[in-house]
Amino acid sequence: VLNPVFLAPFILVPLVLTAVAYIANVTGLVPVTINDVAWNVPILLSGYLATNSIAGSILQVVCLAISTVIYLPFVSLDNWLKAAQFDRTYKKLVQVPSSGELAELGPRFLGGTDTVGSLARFLAQDMERGLEMREFYLEYQPQVDSRTGRVYGVEALLRWRHPQIGMVPPPVFIGLAEDSGLIKTLGLFVAEEACRQAAEWQKIPGAEKVVISINVSARQLDDLELPDKIFAMTQKYEVPVQNIKVEVTESTAIGGHDGHKVLTKFSQHGFKLAIDDFGMGHTSLSYLREFEVSSLKLDSIISRDVLVSRSSREIVYTIADLCRNLGIELIAEFVEDEAHLLKLRELGCYNIQGYFYSKPLLPEDCLLFILDQHPSYGEVEEEIRNKSVCS
Asked: Measuring CA to CA, which of 11, 223, 296, 309 is 20 to 30 A from 32?
């Protein structure tokens, strides 16, 4: 009654059905009503009892068919309008992580009072059910040593395939998880799936030493028991802790005392630590001073600009030299073509993660990639390293 799309059929159907019934009566196709039938008598039976004829039941079927035909285009129109509105709302929701509407520790999805906020709350409620229904799963993006073409590690990337919406972008469901408090549950799910996968690969020659990186958000670092929980998972699946790398985003401030204690406990358990987006945050050098870091990942802005920006080339060259001196592995992400790879190698960055080698893969496809041979580029000539590569 309150939906304006259905106003026309709401008025039209009773008028048409009354006219049809009147014509059926006056033409003698259906006998007139001779019995008073209670309103709750089922259709077909009520038509027969009211007219004492099967023609009354047939008239009811005809009226039902006519009303369905009249309503059908309006139902289709209403569905189309709702789908269009949902698409507009969903696009706005997807844009929230990059819109600048961020709180200290991530996007605030759930506080909105508009349709975007309503959709966010709907998805947040669906996340817990999604975990139970195995809608969440991991893909793995290989990390390749470009000098040998060998896959030495992978990054575990969480995915969510919603039954109605389809694939939900990670920035959206990660932000929802942080807002709703489900991020710790999601983080433990990722850790356990990664440990289980590492245990399977450990049995396969050629894949047994592959290191799986798992991302830990700043909100997870509030949990002082997190290192013990993940260490218990490695024991459960009999996976060496050296095969699991804990990756923390460098641009996320973890200045709290608990965050430092958690990372310290990870190191004490023997986990490798990696810093993502290194080079643009304000805590860069403090990480290297305070923790036993095994890997640095170049900030994507710096890495992508090495072909066009002299400043980016100088930064990469300096970070690569620092990593060589400290014995730290340097990784470049988002490498999509050979020119990009060769320039990074020229600057001293040999470990590559990106579409040039592979997109994120399902476990079975990733295993095949790990066992395969990939393009290698050999060592950089000494004279190239000695000359001014930043020019």
From this structure: 11
